[in-house]
Amino acid sequence: MQSASNENYIDNLRREKSVGMQETGFNRSNLSVSTDRYTSKEYAEREREMIWMKTWQAAGREDEIPNAGDWKEYRIYDQSFLLARGSDGKIRGFVNACTHRGNVLCTEKKGNNARFTCPYHLWSFNLEGNLVGVGRPDLVGPIDKSEHGLVQISVDSMGGFIFLNPDPNAEPLADYLGEDVVSFLKPYNLDKLSPVMDVRESLECNWKVVVDAFQEGYHIDGVHPELLQVIVIDPFRTRYNFPKYHNLAVAPFDVKHANDTSFGADQEIAAIRALPGTFPGVAAILPAFEQLITPYQQADGSHQFPEGVSGRSLLQQATRATLTASGLDVSGLTDDQMSDNHGYLLFPNFFMTVRAGECHIILPTPHPDGDPNRCIWHVTSYMWLPPGAEAFRAELVEVEEPGSYPYFLALQQDYEQMPRQQKGLRNSLLKKLTLAQEEVCVAHFHSVVDQFMAGQTNS
Ligand code: FES
Ligand SMILES: [Fe+2]
Predict the structure, then answer these.
(1) Are residues 34 and 135 in the same domain?
(2) How many CB atoms lie within 10 A of CB 199?
(3) Ligand at shortest distance from the CA of 409
(4) How far apart are CA 48 and CA 378, in angstroms?
(5) Domain annotation covers residue 428
(6) Is the beta carbon of 125 within 6 A of some atom in ligand 1?
(7) Is the CB of 100 under 6 A from ligand 1?
(8) Mean pLDDT across the stretch 187-212?
(9) Which residue out of 95, 96, 100, 106 has the highest number of ligand 1 atoms within 8 Å of its CB and is therefore the one to mutate?
(10) Is the CB of 101 under 6 A from ligand 1?
(11) Are 225 and 327 in a shared domain?
(12) Is the CB of 121 under 6 A from ligand 1?
């Protein structure tokens, strides 16, 4: 069953705005990327001003600060911001510095209070950022409190994610993301999903090495050979869409190669049964899937699907039925969105793969010390947890000892690969990289980096 908005979605994605690999318009010259962007200190300093001080970036989740007075810190480089929920329920962003003499207001990472009181001379600010009290007013003399509130910055939310933009002239988040991204993501009800994995640690590579690594499937043969069983990188099936600064790649989940006649129902079923290794949310779908394939079982135990039925279509049915029964509204999602891996990069650093009921986010940021050879990577998985399953909500794990966190296999492989690339990139005689056509999203990302670095955007 598909609503009108679903049809629009498919129409936009398939016919008008999305294109196949061959039609993306990228040629050899824009598949070339300079290497100084990964290693040069000067480049990193300019990037800080031209990209990180000017773009909307994911700073947390709304459900991290559910109650009035809840707040959390967001840091980018040495810049510290407070995200606070007011008594009116609204989330606001402030520079974490007192407007008296600049003392840091909050030294913790999160908390709850009705007022922010600066410990230096006891100026206090309410949750709306207004100056509401000063220590020893007799020593302060006349002062117009309404002119000395906290410095406010732009904050907005999308799908339960709080975004922040340090630029005082930031365009609204919805304009920055663009209509397509907002409307594509809305029916997933991302704000209803809960974290089931939340890990952050320092990594020995540039933040763009991380962004690059998650925007292409070309490295599957080399780095994740076991995924070949469940992911087919097919240049004739993957569809691309480049809304504004962002990109979207859809690799239809269909393990059968177009021209592989030896691939039957049992191979398809085996691939779907192996999916939870990559998409853990599928584990909850498998019981319904097993029921749906039962009628197609032959006397010898093998399976055969008639015309019009496939493992993919049954997986879509099972996903819709399971999620609906457990209380998640998926009525706005297309069948494609049930099964296919939709990969989004929201510029600059929000990479997300999303299917109905689950999403996985890779969020690398520059290292606070400014060293371009390092970054902080923040990896989170969100899933639909039916009522009563709150015990599965994950707390943030800050990894101190490199290599000590047990990532799942594919993520561990990427975790080990990325610093190796950075080691190679540090060689100063290597001036440029040459991308493959399959890496068109990487190329698009770097073309947007170039635009921002040249100041050629209206953000
Ligand atoms: S610096 Fe905050 S009260 Fe003086
Ligand atoms: Fe990978």
Answers:
(1) no
(2) 18
(3) 2
(4) 19
(5) yes
(6) no
(7) yes
(8) 97
(9) 100
(10) yes
(11) yes
(12) yes
Residues with Cβ < 8 Å from 225, sequence gap 6 or more? none
Record the pTM: 0.92
At 2, the pLDDT band (50, 70, 90 cuts) reads very low
Asked if residue 106 has its Cβ within 6 Å of ligand 1, the reply is no
Are both 193 and 157 inside the same structural domain?
no
How far is the centre of ligand 2, averaged over its atoms, from the C-alpha of 410 (Å)?
A: 6
pLDDT tens digits, one per residue of 303-347: 999 988 988 899 999 999 999 999 999 999 988 888 888 899 999
Provide the token pair at 225: 């050979």
Instruction: Look at ligand 1, atom 3, and give the residue with the nearest C-alpha.
Output: 121
**In a shared domain, residues 162 and 208:** no
The CA-atom distances, in angstroms, between 215 and each of 4, 32, 51, 76, 197 are 30, 16, 19, 23, 21
Query: Each residue of 266-278: pLDDT tens digit?
Result: 988 988 898 887 7
How remote is the CA of residue 254 from the centroid of ligand 1, in Å? 60
Cβ–ligand 1 distance for 118 under 6 Å, the answer yes
